[in-house]
């Protein structure tokens, strides 16, 4: 028995046998299908040692360029991958093809879908708190915003199945107050893979529209910070890939009831981010940065004593915190130290501006 807990000691093989029905698959089940991954063209050619070998090409032109004749195209279902993130057991980074337990360490494997938040269309990419839906907003022109929907493996979802709206804030100089403008996101053309909102001309950045989208029967808010118009990347663009990791589900932030209390909590997160940058703990920046976003947004509901102009300045500072937090997270995911430090400066300036607005040193 275990000398500490008294439980009976079992060999690893006992656990493997006990949980064999829960183990993640080590073999991809690739079935032919009419939809899924891109077509592959197969060629048969003589092997130098005798017999034949099969060659694979992604297009007829590629095969012809290699001097081969492509025989027939075929498609395979897209393979969903999972990886083990347990370190020190010799299985970190091992790839599997179904959810379940790692056969080596018996810890749950993690979906690679949650590890790649690079935008597909050059926009701002966000994962919903249900850990399934992913949304990407783009700003291809000053008067247009697009919203794309994906599942947990970044596979496109039909936008016609979703309802959403955009809320934009602006400052009315004459009335000395902030006003909200609500714009519907609509599906305009049959083949469009996105919903679109027709905006007025966007002139000031950062521009952070709030999107309210219905997901699984519940309306959720998403803030998309833009610092410029977005650009559709080239088809073969490769994005930086960080070390395999997963953030998991972030606990809801407890919001103090006073502005001073909220600012104290923001400063605590600021100190944590600074410490983790100094310690080069890049993957641990995510939680305090996103906590700060939530706290900064909550501060706006406690700004009733500020003038209309100062509430507008607070809105701008909060938008800068959101943009900087998003950038810190992405740069941290790729362990890009120079970018992390640069974005932290932007974050710290916005925090200082908020302190000044509320007279906090």
Structure characterization notes:
With 361 residues, this protein is an alpha+beta fold. Helices cover 26% and strands 21% of the residues. The protein has a 4-stranded antiparallel β-sheet, with no helix packed on it. A 4-stranded antiparallel β-sheet has the order 11-10-13-14. Strands 2-1-3 form a 3-stranded antiparallel β-sheet. The chain is globular, with a radius of gyration of 25 Å. It starts with 11 loop residues before the first helix and ends with a helix. The model is unreliable at 30-37 (pLDDT under 50).
Keywords:
14 strands; globular; 361 residues
| Mean pLDDT over the residues | 83
Order of helices and strands: HEEHEEEEEEEEEEEEHHHH
Categorize the overall geometry. globular
Strand sequence of the main sheet, in spatial order?
Answer: 7-8-9-12
Low-confidence runs: 30-37
% residues in beta strands: 15-25%
